[in-house]
UniProtKB/TrEMBL annotation:
Reaction equations catalysed: ATP + (deoxyribonucleotide)n-3'-hydroxyl + 5'-phospho-(deoxyribonucleotide)m = (deoxyribonucleotide)n+m + AMP + diphosphate
Organism (species): Candidatus Woesebacteria bacterium RBG_13_46_13
GO molecular function: ATP binding; DNA binding; DNA ligase (ATP) activity; metal ion binding
Binding site for ATP: E244, R251, R270, E299, F339, R415, K421
Domain ATP-dependent DNA ligase family profile intervals: 327-450
Protein role: DNA ligase that seals nicks in double-stranded DNA during DNA replication, DNA recombination and DNA repair.
Protein name: Probable DNA ligase
Co-factor(s): Mg(2+)
InterPro entries assigned to the protein according to its UniProt record, in alphabetical order: ATP-dep_DNA_ligase (IPR050191), DNA_ligae_ATP-dep_bac/arc (IPR022865), DNA_ligase_ATP-dep (IPR000977), DNA_ligase_ATP-dep_C (IPR012309), DNA_ligase_ATP-dep_cent (IPR012310), DNA_ligase_ATP-dep_CS (IPR016059), DNA_ligase_ATP-dep_N (IPR012308), DNA_ligase_N_sf (IPR036599)
Cross-referenced Pfam families: DNA_ligase_A_C (PF04679), DNA_ligase_A_M (PF01068), DNA_ligase_A_N (PF04675)
GO biological process entries: cell division; DNA biosynthetic process; DNA recombination; DNA repair; lagging strand elongation
Top-rank taxon, per record: Bacteria
UniProt-listed SUPFAM superfamilies: ATP-dependent DNA ligase DNA-binding domain, DNA ligase/mRNA capping enzyme, catalytic domain, Nucleic acid-binding proteins
Catalytic residues in the record: K246 (n6-amp-lysine intermediate)
Amino acid sequence: MTFKALSQYLDKLEKTASRNEITQILSQLFKTADKEEIDKVIYLLLGQLAPNYMAITLNIAERMMLRVIAQAYDEDINKVKALYKQMGDLGNVAQSLAIADGGALSVSAVYDKLMEIAREAGAGSQERKVSGTAKLLGELDPLSARFVARIPVGKLRLGFSDMTILDALSYMVKGDKGARVEIEHAFNVTADIGKIAQKVKARGLSSLEAIVPEPGTPIRPSLAERLPSAEKILEKVGREVYVEPKYDGFRSQVHIYEQDGAKTVAIFSRNLENTTPMFPDLVAAAKGLKVKNAIFDGEAIGYEPKSKRFLPFQETVQRKRKHGIEQAVKDFPLKLFIFDVLYLNGKSFLNVPFDQRRKTLEGVIPEAGEAIEITRQEKVASAEVIRDLIKKYLAEGLEGALIKKIDAPYKAGGRGYHWVKYKKTTEGGLADTVDCLVLGIYKGRGKRAGFGAGAFLVGVKEGTRFLSVSKIGTGLTDEQWREMDKRARSLKIKDRPKEYEVPKNLTPDAWVKPSLVVEILADEITRSPIHTAGLALRFPRLIRFRDEKSPEQATSITELNTLFEMQKSLSKK
Ligand code: ATP
């Protein structure tokens, strides 16, 4: 397929708002794409060159892209800048300057070139990136240039996600959504959507039946449900359950495998980012485990060996940095608690019942290791014992407990009652904190004037929209206010994003583009005639900025309604 043909699809997709129509266009595109190329087509559609966890990015700043465009079309940089100011989009600028009627390059040729540019490193690499991208643009027709110019600056936003692609793949093979479950299952087990598409295209749906995890490719993690009481948990999860402490740190899926003859370790976060470089100490410890290859699931948390105290998330998070890792390893030692095994020595464990997975785990992970140990666990059949255990965990500075179904398979990519989380807030009021999107900020008045932001508006998700649920003006420390102000400032926009639904009289002084997710703890959820969510949070407090969550992962209105119902059932007791 030529890149020009792909660009015609991109153009159509850009002009389409309906998800159904987008799915149809995509399925048409997938039918037309060659089986050798469909993976590349999909990465490019998502504005990427590879799945996120591979961290292959072009990373060209807008300023640099202006130079690229000037060089590509032999134009004066000031003219390019002026065009950008006028058009507001680098893609449109490139399109307006492109003259080549070209269009002969294939998708693979463009992709390979972009990949080569992304892999440039070392001395002089920036210049090589500029000239490489300029050369590529110069060979493209105007429409192709528009899209290629947007990719390196992260601006190819076509407004659909992995899930729409999965739907479209189902339409490609079956003409309807009938294959969606199977395809999604495969995606949960090996989170590389390009590879899955290629398999389906080359060898049909049946090639997905035997899909097994591949060390090196992340598995979409299992997530927990909430329930309002220990009694309800026993009712729903099983008369006998496993209870484990809930550590509040970094979700860490640890892959151990052989690559090019060497034992290799890769660690993936809850969102499947590759976090390996953050944890050289855990990598070294994982290499020491006596396994040929494996995928473990666990949580890494800051730990003070002397006092045996676990650190709160705010301190653990200091490990999340790009520079000074060596010092951070010393200052903030971590302990990785492994709670599951998904793959071991060439065999998938996803469908093995949890109690057997646990037995296997006990055979390979030490009970008391220096950096890695197995998560404590107790088999419990009484609500009272569950409550006592939680009290014990909380006294140790932990976040709460996870209650797990004894014979459940590992549910990749899903939330369900095979795992229930039970936090300290569970019986005191709200069954959980709420992850909200910051929609806008209000200027500080009076005491808050010095901080810039004096209050902020947050919302929950409904489909692709965000509904306002609380205006928060208290419950932040001075440091948190400063942080809020700093972050909101860099995300400020003039116009209300069309997906925000906010009552007129709550219009903030500045809108914040959909990016900043905050975890909010409230005393209560109340019905609200004001907020568009129809519910509001009473006495909200900011727990933390949830950098690892994207706006799509904010709490949904359905989840908030469930929490509201849970709270009603609690207050009746
Ligand atoms: P939150 O972290 O706010 O509870 P979440 O949406 O990130 O929400 P949940 O599925 O709700 O994640 O809670 C499960 C999380 O708890 C896991 O992602 C994992 O990071 C963490 N965790 C800590 N201890 C355990 C454990 N023993 N077993 C499973 N998960 C654990």
